[in-house]
Amino acid sequence: MRKLIFCLIMFSWFKPNAQTNSRAYKVMLEGMYKHSVPTLSCNELKKELNSVVLLDTRAKKEYDVSHLPDARWVGYDDFDLKRVDNLPKSTPIVVYCTVGVRSERVGEKLKAAGFQNVRNLYGSIFEWVNQGNPVVDTQGKPTPKVHAYSRAWGIWLNKGEKVYE
Q: Which sign does the torsion angle of CA 60, 63, 65, 71 carry?
């Protein structure tokens, strides 16, 4: 309860870099993020899509359902820096996952490995889809499907077709 009250107080002072419409979602994210990796909003990402490398930090089965166009899968539990060893350390990288927690942890690992321009997509794929942005399947075709991680987390996905398998 103290953590929730703290998050509500912090949220009233701190305006996150995002356009989330749900105050509850914003509070939840602020309570979970460590802010160890800078964030960028979906609108900011849309302006930079052609100049960043997108890294999907979810499980492979989540990525296979859908992912942001041109995103590379790097995983979370089995994340290995070898998956990005072909990228110069100055490469602008945007990491994302379901809501942004796992991607923040991978972003920390990338920063610790010397990557200088790593940012976390605020609200991640849920926020991306909730704002009406496209996701694609493994063939690169647009799809309404989004892996919602679990039924508990799926409440934050307001658009798209939720997949749990």
A: negative
In angstroms, the Cα distances linking 131 to 21, 114, 115, 159, 160 are 9, 32, 29, 8, 10
Does 53 fall in a domain? yes
Domain with 46 in it: 34-163
Q: Tell me the pLDDT band of 18, cut-offs 50, 70 and 90.
A: very low
Q: Please give the distance of CA 85 from its chain centroid, rounded to a whole number.
A: 21
What does the H/E/C string look like for 117-146? CEEEECCHHHHHHHCCCCCECCCCCECCEE
20 within a domain of the structure (yes/no): no
Q: pLDDT at position 10, please?
A: 41
For the stretch 103-148, pLDDT in tens is 999 999 999 999 999 999 999 999 999 999 999 999 999 999 999 9
CB 99 within 8 A of CB 123: yes
What is the distance between the alpha carbons of residues 78 and 110, in angstroms, rounded to a whole number?
A: 14
